[in-house]
Amino acid sequence: MTGIPTLPHENRLLRLSGQIGLGLLTLAITLLGLLLITFLIGRVVPIDPVLSIVGERATEAQMQAIRDKLGLDLPMWQQFFIYVRDALQGDLGTSIRTGEPVATEIARYFPATLELATLGTIFGTLVGVPAGVLAATRPGSIADQIVRVVGLMGYSMPIFWLGLIGLLVFYGELGWVAGPGRLDPTFGMMMEFTLKSYTGMILIDSALNGAWDVFANALSHIILPAGLLGYVSMAYISRMTRSFMMNELGQEYITTARVKGMPEGRVIWVHAMKNVLVPLITVIALSYAYLLEGSVLTETIFAWPGLGSYITNGLFAADMPAVLGGTVVVGVAFVTLNMASDILYRLVDPRART
Fold first, then answer.
1. By the 8 A CB rule, do 85 and 68 touch?
2. Which among 136, 113, 96 has a CA at the least distance from the CA of 243?
3. How many CA atoms lie within 13 A of 114 on its CB side?
4. Average per-residue pLDDT in the chain?
5. Alpha-carbon distance 248 to 87, whole Å?
6. What is the pTM of this model?
7. Alpha carbon distance 227, 229 (integer Å)
8. Which of 44, 78, 135, 258 is least crowded, fewest Cβ atoms below 10 Å from its Cβ?
9. Residue 204 phi/psi, 5° resolution?
């Protein structure tokens, strides 16, 4: 008796299911490793969490009560199990400085970083990709040299120096943009007490509320720090786009398309860009993740109440639950973006689905 043959689309579904399962397993192992690292950091730092909570004048009985409450007398493996269980339930501990749940505070600070990094990545992509393509299609030209020099400057100049110069020129001298912070005090009070919050991102929330005066003020505040982060992102994206595009333009299928008389714009933006887009997705995702985790200096210079500032303030105050909770959130965002880029990679490149 012969078996029933497996249809090609069934094979593709089985392979896709296996890839998704493997991806989820990898994600779970990565997140578990991240939690293990943050747990160990919290145990090896020379800061006694009990003293941070009760102070140096507390009695031994009070210190022991806090130690029992935190489970610090339990075996290390049991402490880690409790830590993972609480993290999976969204419990990242309690801030020593404020006494509020760390997850609640992060939910209040993270949208500011997300808004800033998203605008920076959009700017970097919209400018960096065309600049990289322009440089690749005219190697050695003035345009190519300008793109490479501008990109090199983005790599070389410290972000805190660019931020200070930007504030001095565009805010202090020219008055083209607003100063540090997310909103002027008056608009900040309107946003807090009058308007409804949907996402925590002021540009989106003010637009949804129809408060266009708040939107304009928020845009004036965010345009300079987002532009600086976008410049750093653009430097990386344009450089990688140039490299990918130059490699594709040397392939035989590009030569064949040109010999057949295909318009140059179609050759570059349809045929070559289709293959460049595959590795470029990963580059953009990594750039976005870098802006999410690496905007500490920018947030400090512009008094931006984001996750970077939250973690920095926690470090200065020896508030380890806040620091470790923020680190976990950044790590989860980084891993999630990598997984999303891998999914997009498979959707864009048919060879990855075979």
1. no
2. 136
3. 17
4. 81
5. 45
6. 0.81
7. 5
8. 44
9. -70, -45
